[in-house]
Amino acid sequence: MSEPINVLPAIALRGTTILPGMIIHFDVSRERSKKAIEAAMLQDQKIFLVTQKDPQIEDPGFVQLFQVGTVAYIKQVVKLPDNLLRVLVEGTRRAELLGLEQETPYLRAEIVLTDEEEEELPQAMLEAMYRSIRELFHTYCTKGGKIGKELAAQILNCQKTKELIDQIAVNLPLSWQSKQKFLEAGKLSDRYELLGAILSNEINVLDISHDLQQKLKKRVDKNQREYILREQLKLIREELGEDNTADEAEEFRRKARELTASQEVKDRILKEIGRFKITSTNAAESSILRGYIETLLSLPWDKCSEDSEDLKAAWKILEEGHYGLKDVKERIMEFLSVRKLTHKGKSPILCLVGPPGTGKTSIAKSVAEATGKRYVRICLGGVRDEAEIRGHRKTYVGAMPGRVTVALEQAGVANPLMLLDEIDKTSSDYKGDTSSALLEVLDPEQNSHFNDHYVELPQNLSEVLFIATANDIQGIPRPLLDRMEVIEISGYTENEKEHIAKEHLIPKQMEANGIPKGKLSIQSTALRKIINNYTKEAGVRNLERLIGQICRKTARLIMEEGKEKVTVTGKNLSDFLGQEKYNYLMANKKDEIGIARGLAWTQVGGDTLQIEVNIMPGKGEFVLTGQLGDVMKESAQAGISYIRSVASKYGIDQEFFQENDIHVHIPEGAVPKDGPSAGITMATAMLSAIVGKPVRADLAMTGEITLRGRVLPIGGLKEKLLAAKYAKIKEVLVPKENKPDIKELDEEITDGLKIIFVENMNEVLERALA
């Protein structure tokens, strides 16, 4: 027979489910709930408690409530501060919610009391259920479940299966979702299965928690033991006066753990720290180990900086920082483009070769800025000891890592830009060959495992961008040169020097000497005069010094005489720099016999070379003066042999060479001269003197001569043509095999020069002799 429908005041509970048999109190804050309690207290103190599905809803309706709740008896109501009510209730029976008669001013629920569904279970099954659930609950309690001992004993004394299951469910600290499922389970077997699953899960959680606690306890016990032992060891070390070593070792260990490096490196460092810790501070090995560990910890290993891939910004930096140097800029942009496409790319090993002051070192800084790399410089000038590159064995007194390792330590990253300055100035002696030690550093196939003798662990240098500089390519050993990409930086033209001075040197020196902007003006005529008559160089180093000298004198004028503005012109330049120091050997005004103009390459750029020949009665002697080197002497000998072989063509008597002495002289005898490019010049001057034909004064030449009169190619063509321009030469004879070199030169260099390509002496003499 079905139960009649009852109407009771109702409260929607948030995050709480109350089961029949539970005595529990809860707080009420919502007005609807307070009025429902008042209505219940005015009747028979019965109230229907149902849980809402979503605890966040403030005023739930029928659909937001569960369909099964509990009819409870209100035992006590207490008013609390902040307009709260604390209600003590006792759950009596399950009830099914049919609908809500009203929702305001409080909930009135239509319910029907539900009896448990009758199940005809065999006595044996009930006994099995009883024993099983009792054993699970006992296990739960013994493993530390949140049930008091007395309460657990009372529950275990229950003799009936239904009573035992309900009492466990009521007193077990379950979530409100689990309690709601238990409330909705109508059959005893359903409630048994649900409670059994919950108890089994709780037992598993307790087991896992217990295992974790045991592991934690062991770890704490171990740490506690280590702490006690460490404190004892510290006390012993303090008594021995060695208390700092342990602290240092711990600090080293901390740094080793934080180090960005491979496990092999970390293991080696930790091993050395262990040795250091047990070594007496009085022992000599202690300081060696300390220095070694500090070096290993300070190296970057696998720590890299992020390279810039902004090609436009990189090009802007290179353009703003340097005037000219097109080849270098293009090579760097190619490297950046490849790196952007591949996101890796091998770092090139560039070698910038050129005269002093042409910006080789400073462009490396600009490249570092353009690529976003850290910049470090190693000066190799005069390095004699191989150990300065590879490091010393750490067993030696005063052992140090090599310069490459020290540079990496300074950079703090494994991928800096490393400048190897003056690589052509290295030397070798009994201490070792420095250039050979550099082979492993600069070989892309080997430097990924560079082995420093001091570090004794392989270092990866493949990410380092190496840039080397040299003044003379002849000073670099061939095997070392083979590992680098050579980019030649020639001397600057007068126009380039003027641009560099205006855009870079003058602003830099004005700032360095405290000259405010607008206080000093150096006119173009003055600049050109400084370039031509006060300096004689391929680069701009002396030019910068002289501009600095002008700035210092300007500062004095401003401070002592109160000058508002100083203007330097070609006329008053001598007031700042004194008398002119250099005068280029200008083209002769008239054609002369026995005088020919040659072109030479020097360490500071190009220069013109005037060769003079005199013929005197004598015994056929051949005299060379002017401090000539062996190569130039051989060129002169080859030239006179060629002239003697063609004497009949020019009407020269064969006895002429036995009856006359020939004297070849190159002025400025105190300056050593050598090189394979003055052969045709000396031959032309000698033939001019012998046959009495003048040589054109507006013509210069360069090239080597063979015995058969063939003209061989030469080097340093750009510098030689610049020297010809400075000397106001109009026509230049150049070996035909140098034609490709001319095509690579800027129009600024060749403009105004008539360049004639020659293959043999016949062509030379046709153009040279007036």
Automatic annotation (TrEMBL):
Its main location: cytoplasm. One of its GO terms (cellular component) is cytoplasm. Residues 590-770 form the Lon proteolytic domain. Its EC number is 3.4.21.53. Homohexamer. Organized in a ring with a central cavity. It is an enzyme of class 3 (hydrolase). It is found in: Cytoplasm. This is Lon protease. Keywords: ATP-binding, Cytoplasm, Hydrolase, Nucleotide-binding, Protease, Serine protease, Stress response. It holds the Pfam family Lon_C. The active site is at residues 677, 720. ATP-dependent serine protease that mediates the selective degradation of mutant and abnormal proteins as well as certain short-lived regulatory proteins. Required for cellular homeostasis and for survival from DNA damage and developmental changes induced by stress. Degrades polypeptides processively to yield small peptide fragments that are 5 to 10 amino acids long. Binds to DNA in a double-stranded, site-specific manner. Residues 8-203 form the Lon N-terminal domain. Belongs to the peptidase S16 family.
